[in-house]
Amino acid sequence: MEKNMNFGGAITALKQGKKVTRKGWNGKGMFLWLKQGNTIESSWCKDPMLKSICDANGGKTEGLPTVCMKTADNKVLTGWLASQTDMLSEDWEVVE
User: Is residue 71 part of a domain?
Assistant: First the structure.
């Protein structure tokens, strides 16, 4: 397992398809992964706003890549943003 990485190393690992976490995070089992971008089809959409965006764009739109987090209480946060502490930390690790 890769340990003691900086934020740049964590980003590189995400781009390689790996999951990463910080040793300093209090929540057990938390990690990040990179959700790849893809084409979103209107017919797949359960979210009314997303469906309307797809419909207005001919039935589909491009979904951009985003960093997602599995939280300590087993929920998913889409569009995770790093704090300054996260960006400056050197305790990033790859999750096996």
Answer: yes
Indicate whether this model's pTM tops 0.70. yes
pLDDT tens, position by position, 46-88:
999 999 999 999 999 999 999 999 999 999 999 999 999 999 9
Establish if 54 belongs to a structural domain.
Answer: yes
In a domain, 77, yes or no: yes
> First CA to last CA across the chain, in angstroms?
7
> 13 is in which domain, residue-wise?
7-95
* Number of neighbouring beta carbons within 10 Å of residue 48: 8
Among all chains, which residue has been given the structure tokens 């781009």? 15
Contact criterion met (CB below 8 Å) for 68 and 78: yes
Q: How is 20-33 classified by DSSP, letter by letter?
A: EEETT--STT-EEE
Amino acid at 16: Q
